[in-house]
Amino acid sequence: MKTIIVSGFLGSGKTTFIEHLSKRLDDVAILENDYARANIDRKLLPSEDGEIFSLEEGCICCSKQADFATTVVSISTEVKPEYLIIEPTGVGYLSKVLANIKPIEYENIKVLQPITIVDYHQIDQTLKKYGKLFLDQLKNAGHILLSKIEKVKEEDIKKAVEMLQKHCSAKIYDKHYSQFSEEEWQELLEEYDYESLLLEDSKNLSLDSFVFRKVYFQDFHSLGTAINAVCEHRFGEVLRGKGVVQVEDKFVKVDIVQGRFDVVKYEGNTIDELVFIGKDLDRHAFEILFQEQE
């Protein structure tokens, strides 16, 4: 079982990339890890992308370490896919995930070069606020892919690549993966050498996470008011928000990343959950803003 770890900070676009990658692989399984009690990403991935497993309410680099190892071995021996794609939580240290999988690597489990997804628009902010974690995800990657660059000028992308290259030795691609050639997709499947692992002392982030179910808004103005309040950090610093809510008779997907948000029409599988992850969040205020239906 060839194992691919897709790392990246909260909201970087890991799940979207995994959706693209899984379509290019035969016989694939996906293991999703979410910091919160609910795993929205697992529900957003199309079922045809492969069998999907999840570990919730904890990080596989620390508190879920034993569960993680057991799950990977079980997938290898019982499901036996050719490829396993692992998506750690966005606040997971890539070095720790690699160290945790090393003891169970044997002839049936081979780790490929880790891939780190980087949100072009959040590089400076993430380096400034969460530098140790972000640098760990960069330094231990074999390949680094920039996300959300479809409308970014080539010269600005190249500047970002040059800046990131100062912090790591990974190959950094200067174009969006949707434009990759077949050879570039194949490059992502190279085997990993544990001699390149950079394991340093690291302190896990302590974050709040709330899950609300069956959230309903009477109109889009009410939804916008609530989302704006969250993005302005009036009730704590929200690093990530994601899920589906009902507005009037429609369902919309909400996506929040460090003060930026997007709301789009949703017509996928039934999802009735909205998750927030952040620091010093006021639970009472969130309960008022995102009241659950009875």
Could you write a compact summary of the structure shown?
It is built from 9 helices and 14 strands.
Structure overview:
- By secondary structure, the chain is an alpha/beta fold.
- The chain is built from 9 helices and 14 strands.
- The strands form 2 sheets. Strands 1, 2, 3, 4, 5, 6, 7 and 8 form an 8-stranded parallel sheet that branches.
- The longest helix has 17 residues, at 123-139.
- It is globular.
Mean of all residue-level pLDDT scores: 89
Looking at the structure, what is the overall shape?
globular
Low-confidence stretches: none
User: Number of helical segments?
Assistant: 9
Main sheet, how many strands, which sense, barrel?
8 strands, parallel
Strand-and-helix sequence, N→C? EHEHEHEHEEHEHEHEEHEEEEH
* Rg, alpha carbons: 19 Å
The count of β-strands is 14
Q: Report how far apart the termini are.
A: 44 Å
- The residue fraction in helices comes out at 25-40%
Structural category is alpha/beta
- What is the percentage of strand-forming residues? 25-35%
Comma- or semicolon-separated keywords:
alpha/beta; 9 helices; about 290 residues; eight-stranded parallel sheet; six-stranded mixed sheet
In terms of topology, how is this protein built?
Blueprint: E1 2-7, H1 14-23, E2 28-34, H2 40-44, E3 51-56, H3 65-79, E4 83-87, H4 94-101, E5 110-111, E6 115-119, H5 123-139, E7 143-147, H6 154-165, E8 171-173, H7 182-187, E9 208-213, E10 216-217, H8 220-231, E11 237-247, E12 250-257, E13 260-265, E14 273-279, H9 283-289
Parallel strand pairs: 1-4, 1-5, 1-6, 2-3, 2-4, 6-7, 7-8, 10-11
Antiparallel strand pairs: 9-14, 11-12, 11-14, 12-13
